Amino acid sequence: MNIWPISLFKTRKIETEVGLCISYPKSGRTWLRVMLDELGVPLRFSHGGSAFHNRDFKSPGNFLGKRKILFLHRDPIDTTISGYFQVTKREAWRNLFDGSVSEFVRDDRLGIVRTLRFNSMWLDVASNNEAVLVTTYESLHSDPVSELHKIANWFGVSVSNERLEKAVAAGRFDTMRAQEATGGYEESYQHRLRPANADDPDSFKVRKGVVGGYRQYLTEDDIAFCKERILQNRA
């Protein structure tokens, strides 16, 4: 069994890759991938069986013990809301969900409970395994240079301050959005970094790129529901 899933982005030879990045869908891996590519940190990227059309997650044991792993975590409410647009805009052809965003966050199969379950599984693994490093979408926003430097060092890749600054510039939202809109990523990332509908901003892979953006889409009741589920998950 090949435990290194085919990357959703551009193809590399396995022997050039220094490790693996695991994340739940819509946790910001496209953004991280673009910056790490600019830095020259070659990773294999996987959702660990958590893609929305999958029913069951893959066991972390399928990935451990081979190479170092980076786990990318994002606020579960932001992740779930971004997932709603992925399912209803970019993957609408799969017919996975046809309802409101309020219904989506409460959906047992696709909503926030699923997000929490996957993230908790991997955070538990990381807390007991020195071969797993956790980074967060939020820390990459607040201090991208330091966080990228930490990741590069973790995988044994030496990077200069100049390259770090260049990587951060490549990962700026307006730069990535413009690249996607004009087909600038076609050669490197093919259809995976292409809007489903160029006239619909919510169908872009690079959609918002903000922290706490869920507040634009959820009611107070929705937010309270999500926060209650987060507290229950921590109990």
Question: Explain this structure to me?
Answer:
44% of the residues lie in helices and 8% in strands. With 235 residues, it is α/β, with parallel strands linked by helices. The protein has a single domain, classed as P-loop containing nucleotide triphosphate hydrolases (Rossmann fold, 3-Layer(aba) Sandwich). Strands 2-1-3-4 form a four-stranded parallel sheet, with helices on both faces. The longest helix is centred in the middle third of the chain and has 16 residues, at 112-127.
Spatial gap, N to C terminus: 36 Å
Q: Please tally the helical runs, counting DSSP H or I stretches of 4 or more residues.
A: 10
Q: Report the biggest beta sheet as strand number plus sense, adding barrel if it closes.
A: 4 strands, parallel
Oligomeric status: single chain
- The amount of beta strand, in percent, is 5-15%
Q: CATH-wise, what's the superfamily?
A: P-loop containing nucleotide triphosphate hydrolases
The percent range for helix content is 40-55%
Low-confidence stretches: 1-15
Total beta strands: 4
CATH class: Alpha Beta
Q: How many domain units? A: 1
The SSE order reads: EHEEHHHEHHHHHH
Can you tell me the CATH architecture? 3-Layer(aba) Sandwich
* Average pLDDT figure: 86
Structural class: alpha/beta
Strand arrangement across the biggest beta sheet: 2-1-3-4
Shape: globular
